[in-house]
Amino acid sequence: MGGVTVTALDAAWADRWLRECARVLADRREELIDLDRAIGDGDHGENMDRGFRAVVAKLDEGPSESVAAALKLAAMTLMSKVGGAAGPLYGTAFLRASVAAGDRDKLDGPAVEAVLTAARDGIVARGKAEPGDKTMVDAWTPAVKAAAAPADGEAALEAAASAAEAGAQATKPLTARKGRASYLGARSAGHLDPGAVSTSYILRAAVTAAVSEISAGDVA
Amino acid sequence: MGGVTVTALDAAWADRWLRECARVLADRREELIDLDRAIGDGDHGENMDRGFRAVVAKLDEGPSESVAAALKLAAMTLMSKVGGAAGPLYGTAFLRASVAAGDRDKLDGPAVEAVLTAARDGIVARGKAEPGDKTMVDAWTPAVKAAAAPADGEAALEAAASAAEAGAQATKPLTARKGRASYLGARSAGHLDPGAVSTSYILRAAVTAAVSEISAGDVA
Amino acid sequence: MKKLINDPRAVVDESLEGFGLAHADLVEVHWDPVYVTRRGGAVQGKVGLVSGGGSGHEPLHAGYVGQGMLDAAVPGAVFTSPTPDQILPATQAADGGLGVVHIVKNYTGDVLNFETAAELCASEGVDVRTVLVNDDVAVEDSLYTAGRRGVAGTVLVEKIAGAAAERGESLDAVEAVAKRVVANVRSMGLALAPCTVPHAGKPSFELADGEIEIGIGIHGEPGRQRVGLEPADVLAERLLTPVMEDLGFEAGEEVLLMVNGMGGTPLSELYIVYRRAAQLLSDRGVSVERSLVGNYTTSLEMQGCSVTVLRLDDELTSLWDAPVKTPALRWGV
Amino acid sequence: MKKLINDPRAVVDESLEGFGLAHADLVEVHWDPVYVTRRGGAVQGKVGLVSGGGSGHEPLHAGYVGQGMLDAAVPGAVFTSPTPDQILPATQAADGGLGVVHIVKNYTGDVLNFETAAELCASEGVDVRTVLVNDDVAVEDSLYTAGRRGVAGTVLVEKIAGAAAERGESLDAVEAVAKRVVANVRSMGLALAPCTVPHAGKPSFELADGEIEIGIGIHGEPGRQRVGLEPADVLAERLLTPVMEDLGFEAGEEVLLMVNGMGGTPLSELYIVYRRAAQLLSDRGVSVERSLVGNYTTSLEMQGCSVTVLRLDDELTSLWDAPVKTPALRWGV
Ligand SMILES: Nc1ncnc2c1ncn2[C@@H]1O[C@H](COP(=O)(O)OP(=O)(O)O)[C@@H](O)[C@H]1O
Ligand SMILES: Nc1ncnc2c1ncn2[C@@H]1O[C@H](COP(=O)(O)OP(=O)(O)O)[C@@H](O)[C@H]1O
Ligand SMILES: [Mg+2]
Ligand SMILES: [Mg+2]
Ligand SMILES: [Mg+2]
Ligand SMILES: [Mg+2]
């Protein structure tokens, strides 16, 4: 049996989060491409992979000074490397998140909620999507809501990630009203929204970065 | 058991020959297209079908006055409707054949030989192909030779058609040195030459037009 | 996937490099970030014209950079809008002191990236106007969508606004004429076969033998409707009718008719579609005064076409006829 | 077979009808027999230029009818040379009193039909010269073949001879310059995917995934060699090397480089091939002075391309640059 240790949601965590995003999104590249092929233009997996690879290249220049700095680095890089709808939306999300993180050296539960809320609000401000429009907002909105309860940062992240996963799954029956999938009208129903799914991966990556699995041997 | 009656190789026969060519070539359109797809550009069946349909349309205006007139009508029509290599080659063949038929009102064995020889020589004069180059000349040359023996016109045609069929089959192993198939080099071997095959159909049609099958009942 | 490419990730850069070499007399390709300008840069005292969008629609947009059309083009990754850090320097390079018009196809990604870029440009002191092109009538219900897409009509906006800028019109006037083209141009497209995005490696959608997609966009998106293959004359009518209805044409009007290939369709087929579309227009008493037939706004190697109609007036016609000297559109000079 | 057509047998006529409607300002389509002339007919006191061949290579040849290029074009059925009864009136319509040059791609069918037509023309009092184009180096051993084929280099012959005729050169001179282009132009092509002739209804050959044909012609004929799909840079070299060797290029020479699409290949891919071909030429010290990239001599919807190199001298360059005003090639006017 193994155990887990939870690390503080500090600058090092933020860097690990971004690297974990890059790892997961590279892994899920084809899956996200296929989701986007079904109701969009088949580039979402490539866009996210390209963006986060660039983030990692930036991180390799040295560790971030703060959570806010890491998030801002992600924001600027995604903005200039992703393009498409996802670039400005995730770019704005990380930028607003960075501002919300402020000069905190680590995030507790309420801080996690504040950061995620800022991110979601940024996406809504840019993209004007409402819940139910079958966009990434449908993953962010339940995530923000779920993050409100826990006092502990990691628990807030865990709740957010699970809610985002459920939210992403719940986009399946919806008819898209924003983004490229909206052109399909009723034919968009029956498919997951790629941006909602990538959001769920990004939030799950935040949890993974916070939690190290320790094998039974290690804790013996 | 049935018998056959042989009709004179006169103007009516010539008209029937051309109509029979049209019928057979329409029937063999796809086969000739496929042969030409393999080593050429896939139009031989379409070209021959188009050309002989036009010949029939001309024949429908009234019966030919003579063998020579029927052959000249075919020559001019094929020349203006077939295009490609086959158009001028068959056009020249029928034109020279028409001249060779001259003012004969019907053809006997030597006349058949003279007509076929003129046709073959016309093709060679235009196309400069030698026997073995994997062209229609490989059907015409043995046909001309076989037509030399019989005194009887129908027997000469029958011998020519059979020789043309054998000649066409014998093009299979050859490497093309003239026409579009020559671009393939050694890859042209292993396929029948479409023009040699259409030549064998045209000569067989001449026999069919000369011979009416009569069922046993009719001759009882 | 069979393509004349090297690394799927290098497609846009290598293609632009070839483009720059082939048309060095007309254009300049800039790297890091990537954008294309007219050879010689901004024309002082002329309104600048910049467009851009995902790659894969060649010759759109870089093929339309040159005298009488665009001053700069900003290519994104394949089917992915470019980013603000590309659009900013392209806009600065296009600014001849009178400001710049951004011609943007109406897609969420393009709109958001050009929006951000316009803010950056403003903060750098460049007066930027944005004209959204949304000619695709296949997207019917714009209340419940991201709005109509910009497709092949974009070429007409770029040509006509480019001519207005070239003849010395003000920023307001160039913006206004571009918007007038947008207000009077409509398009609709169909696909016989999908395209394959290099980095995706798989066709953008699946179509059975004998099936086609009506109302496709230019990004390999599936269309609104899947129907059986029909004769070209029927298909031409399927495309033209909604275009005509949306524009509300009346007898006696004059139009430009464009039949645009999606990249993998032979020119001969485009002319067959053109023939029927022209007949239908003339049946309604609409007079086709100008035409454009060819691959002008493509979707990689997609097989299919779109039909575009632009309502003309004397000014638009004379701007259309004005000289243009770009890699992909050229006359009068 | 998925095509934007009506009846497979009506493809050529309906396409020409659309072509005539779309370009009524430049050309006139004649029926029964079919041929295309410059709007306004023969230019008196100018040598006439006529070309023709099977359809399916659009814009070749009808797309090159107009000022500075052809006076008439004679389209046959798809991939089938036209007949003498079409070529005769087209030639007469092109004769401005100084005689006519026939530009004929070297295929048995084209040669024989133009030969007969030339005899008919002579008997009608038109002085006809025939220039055979045979630029395709894929056909190596011309002793054992019908000789090298005419492919995309034909466009360069038509453009340059057309410019010579337009500037008032004599029949001898126009014939001579056309032959000089033929002597200095070489091409080679490849296919990633075959085309389907409408009346055949089946692909012209079969290629497995990952297989390509090197040395194809423009009639859907299989090539000389079937190889595995390779990167564009390798393929560009496979095409350019025999072209260069056949022309025997030396450092310091100047050339025109053309990368021609076979109809179904995106422009972006052609530029990737162009990029490498231009690099290879410059590595050898050969200077690319002019370029042409696009679908200029096609094979229906075939996917693939050809590379053409023309050795330039000052006269050929200035004839190339001379104004041309046709549906498919236009500059300077
Ligand atoms: N207006 C919007 N608001 C929020 N999210 C949006 C909006 N438009 C698109 N999206 C999200 O962007 C995702 C698509 O991103 P991507 O494929 O990278 O960009 P593009 O659509 O430009 O190709 C969609 O799945 C959706 O979640
Ligand atoms: N030089 C030639 N001499 C004799 N026959 C030839 C010659 N060139 C081609 N042919 C014949 O023409 C046939 C092809 O005819 P067709 O397909 O209609 O014309 P094309 O080759 O122009 O498409 C070949 O199969 C061959 O028999
Ligand atoms: Mg997408
Ligand atoms: Mg053939
Ligand atoms: Mg995209
Ligand atoms: Mg042919």
UniProtKB/TrEMBL annotation, chains A, B:
<dbReference type="Pfam" id="PF02734">
    <property type="entry name" value="Dak2"/>
</dbReference>
<protein>
    <submittedName>
        <fullName>Dihydroxyacetone kinase</fullName>
    </submittedName>
</protein>
<dbReference type="InterPro" id="IPR004007">
    <property type="entry name" value="DhaL_dom"/>
</dbReference>
<dbReference type="GO" id="GO:0004371">
    <property type="term" value="F:glycerone kinase activity"/>
</dbReference>
<keyword id="KW-0808">Transferase</keyword>
<feature type="domain" description="DhaL">
    <location>
        <begin position="12"/>
        <end position="208"/>
    </location>
</feature>
<dbReference type="InterPro" id="IPR036117">
    <property type="entry name" value="DhaL_dom_sf"/>
</dbReference>
<dbReference type="InterPro" id="IPR012737">
    <property type="entry name" value="DhaK_L_YcgS"/>
</dbReference>
<dbReference type="GO" id="GO:0005829">
    <property type="term" value="C:cytosol"/>
</dbReference>
<keyword id="KW-0418">Kinase</keyword>
<dbReference type="InterPro" id="IPR050861">
    <property type="entry name" value="Dihydroxyacetone_Kinase"/>
</dbReference>
<dbReference type="GO" id="GO:0019563">
    <property type="term" value="P:glycerol catabolic process"/>
</dbReference>
From TrEMBL, chains C, D:
<comment type="pathway">
    <text>Polyol metabolism; glycerol degradation.</text>
</comment>
<dbReference type="InterPro" id="IPR004006">
    <property type="entry name" value="DhaK_dom"/>
</dbReference>
<feature type="domain" description="DhaK">
    <location>
        <begin position="7"/>
        <end position="331"/>
    </location>
</feature>
<protein>
    <recommendedName>
        <fullName>phosphoenolpyruvate--glycerone phosphotransferase</fullName>
        <ecNumber>2.7.1.121</ecNumber>
    </recommendedName>
</protein>
<dbReference type="GO" id="GO:0004371">
    <property type="term" value="F:glycerone kinase activity"/>
</dbReference>
<keyword id="KW-0319">Glycerol metabolism</keyword>
<dbReference type="GO" id="GO:0047324">
    <property type="term" value="F:phosphoenolpyruvate-glycerone phosphotransferase activity"/>
</dbReference>
<dbReference type="GO" id="GO:0005829">
    <property type="term" value="C:cytosol"/>
</dbReference>
<dbReference type="Pfam" id="PF02733">
    <property type="entry name" value="Dak1"/>
</dbReference>
<keyword id="KW-0808">Transferase</keyword>
<keyword id="KW-0418">Kinase</keyword>
<dbReference type="InterPro" id="IPR012736">
    <property type="entry name" value="DhaK_1"/>
</dbReference>
<comment type="subunit">
    <text>Homodimer. The dihydroxyacetone kinase complex is composed of a homodimer of DhaM, a homodimer of DhaK and the subunit DhaL.</text>
</comment>
<dbReference type="GO" id="GO:0019563">
    <property type="term" value="P:glycerol catabolic process"/>
</dbReference>
<dbReference type="InterPro" id="IPR050861">
    <property type="entry name" value="Dihydroxyacetone_Kinase"/>
</dbReference>
